[in-house]
Structure prediction request, 304 residues.
Amino acid sequence: MNDYAKINFSDLVAAKGTYYFLSVAKKVKAITILINANFFSNTFYWGKMLNIIILELKRLNIESFIYILEEDKPVDLSDKRFSSDAFIFIGAKRESAISQITALKKPHIFIDPIKEQAQSTIVSHDNFAAGYKCAKIFYDMGHLTFCFLDADSRSLSYEKRYNGFASFLTQNKIEDFPRISPMTEAKNISDIYNFSDILKLSKRPTAFFCASDFILLSAFSMFKKLNLSVPEDISIISFDNSNPHDIDNISVDSFGISVVNMALTALYILLIYIDSGTISLPMDICIDTILVKRGSVKNPKEVL
Prediction:
């Protein structure tokens, strides 16, 4: 806990433009966090992520509970912790437990810091390479339609990420990939409707690259404003500005303040969907950067 006493959460939240969630949080009295019995064998990573979420829930005046999922034991739904308004799974994907929680028909989200999934993350100081590798990951997953989600005021780093993204796609003879801003201020209202129109196209994008985690939050806010759920076949990857590590050298132990970003972004996306009345969030948030909803594209032609 001492490591995080130095972090000014109010400033971090303000920087992400998330004071909006303070009003949303009034609807939420309590959230239960579910973890595996072996959770604390990796306190260096998962334990600190748990601390981050608990601290932020306290700041939002939301009561938090922890429930430990034991091997081969069903969840005791009579436990008062299951009367919470929503649930957060951290690295806890026991199928039986998920089925029981889903049956409660309450909002829930997964944060899945699994080492194997690090291979699909985008973290690099080389912005061009990050954009390029992101497009390649999408392409290798089977996606054939793409979109770059940008800020209204484009920075040099965002421009390099876009150029890398575009470079891979054009090399593979993909030329039509919209670049729009999902920011939700009134001045960008045309982009909001553009976003909606894009999702309705016969060749709508199924792969979205967010220029930053702030853009990711804006994108989910836009889904809410448009009363849209995230289609099952959509994949969204967000670049995490704060992580200092190279994409080719990611491990469970190599992380920086991106742990904060990942945990808080998961929490805020959950609150957005609570506000919009959505029950199930079909997404994963993975290690070191934010990889949301890796859509299954078994036959890309069916998507088109």
